[in-house]
Amino acid sequence: SFYAWALISIFISTIVFFLAPTYAGKFLLGFGFYIGIIFAGFLITLKVKAVKFISSVLILLSIGVFGYVNYMDYIRFYDQGNGRFSAFVERDEELIGYLKGEESSCTIMSDPYTQILIASQTNYETINAQYMSIENRKKLFELVTYPSFVNYHELLGTSDLQEYRPLCFVYSFRLQGSEDENIFWLENVYNSKLTSNDSVRLSDDFVQYMTSNGYEVRFSSEDHIFLMRSI
């Protein structure tokens, strides 16, 4: 029946929600739609008009409130603070323009949001873009924050990075900040920094460590530094 189909759809939406946490909220759109269908069918069976009316009002209010809250979460994320609401940030344009003009010769590792922009607009491969593993996110941040031989080799030694060679890095302004401020590895991509007041410099410890270990600076700005291993 139609209601059985709605229940199956809810079940599938729930499974996908847990299998794809990065954009989990989008899969709940179908969940809410089919829940609404089932509630509508339930209301039809009610014989007391007052109960029907009150139930309908409560359902509509719930849909409106939750829809508004979710919408405002997306708006806050894409708000760049200058009246612009977009997934594309002006601070990334110079780096993207440079990479578009280069022939892909390595796999880029950076924060998940920067990886999305690179993977979607250039020919460069990244470490699974927004689906970068939590382990790799933590180890990358540890290396950027405390560059050392141990942290570097712990990062390169993770099993899922073995297929990505050679590996190069984009040191992004999104990688700045303390661990409490920068929690992009703990939750979904909407907890990443879209933009901020942070910047990167050639004198930063991470850049100095990487260049002393065989990496060359191929691109540099106050927003991103592209590091590629010397051949």
Structural class: alpha/beta
Indicate the radius of gyration in whole angstroms: 23 Å
Give the ordered list of helices and strands: HHHHEHEHHEHEE
Give the termini distance in whole angstroms.
64 Å
- For this structure, the quaternary state is single chain
Strand order of the largest sheet: 2-1-3-5-4
* Gross geometry: elongated
Q: Portion of residues in helices? A: 40-55%
Task: Assess the beta-strand content as a share of residues.
Answer: 5-15%
Outline of the structure:
With 231 residues, this protein is of the alpha/beta class. The chain has 8 helices and 5 strands; from the N terminus they run ααααβαβααβαββ.
Task: Give the helices and strands, then pairings.
Elements (H helix, E strand, L loop, with lengths): L1 H18 L4 H22 L3 H30 L11 H11 L6 E3 L2 H10 L3 E2 L7 H12 L3 H8 L10 E6 L32 H7 L3 E6 L3 E6 L2
Helix pairs in contact: 1-2, 2-3, 4-5, 6-7
